[in-house]
Amino acid sequence: MSELLRIENLSAGYGEAVVLHDVAFTLGEGQTLALLGRNGTGKTTLINTLAGATRQHGGTIALGGQAALHKLQPHQRAAAGIGWVPQERNIFKSLTVHENLTAVERPGQWNPQRVYEMFPRLAERKTNLGTQLSGGEQQMLAVGRALVLNPKLLLLDEPLEGLAPIIVEELLRAIRRITRDEGLAAIIVEQHPQAILAISDQAVVLDHGTIVHADTAAALRARPEVLDRLLGVAR
Ligand SMILES: Nc1ncnc2c1ncn2[C@@H]1O[C@H](COP(=O)(O)OP(=O)(O)O)[C@@H](O)[C@H]1O
Ligand SMILES: [Mg+2]
User: Fold this and answer.
1) Domain total for the chain?
2) Of 11, 18, 19, 23, best ligand 1 pocket probe by most atoms within 8 Å of the beta carbon
3) What secondary structure does DSSP assign to 102-152, as a single string?
4) Which ligand has its closest atom nearest to the C-alpha of 205?
């Protein structure tokens, strides 16, 4: 399997504050990585650093043929293959569902039609404004908007957070389809990791901005006592 992402000696934060210290891992083409850790341990900071939305203090990020992704501006990283679904979702509230997708669409196998097939709820709401969507629909649209960029790597920051169980099931099915069936590489942040570990290849656990555990997802899933220790009660 060829390598897609390589992170070395990464440190980053906000202004003078350094939140991530010496983070390093690699991800292969088509692989899914579960990024775990208690609240406030740096998961979002790591995702945002990959997207170019924090202050990087040191280290390197390579994505596919792009050896120095860390030197690029956020919009250049999107063009280089980073599909970012931020924790706040950040859809364009004043645009319709369809406009949200066509505004950022780039040529490739993912287009609005395929997003609608994946999320029939969005197809029904094509002409609704972002402000008129439920939380679950906004999350589906945020995922769809990242997909139509036709990224090499999808970054999902707590995509299931705060959603009703039936919507969680729908999103999980879609994420499984995107990563497992379609083979798109992804990093998925989750605080309640069993469902995400079940569809991931690798797992990385952060604490205080450093990696405290890295293993295959299957190995970590098989050891609930280790997960308990690393994540506390939230499991
Ligand atoms: N915009 C910011 N400015 C300064 N510090 C921040 C900012 N966002 C997060 N932090 C700090 O960075 C640390 C990690 O936060 P975060 O990456 O959001 O954690 P997680 O996603 O794992 O819950 C926390 O101590 C948090 O207070
Ligand atoms: Mg977070």
Assistant:
1) 1
2) 19
3) HHH--SSS--HHHHHHH-HHHHHTTTSBGGGS-HHHHHHHHHHHHHTT--S
4) 1
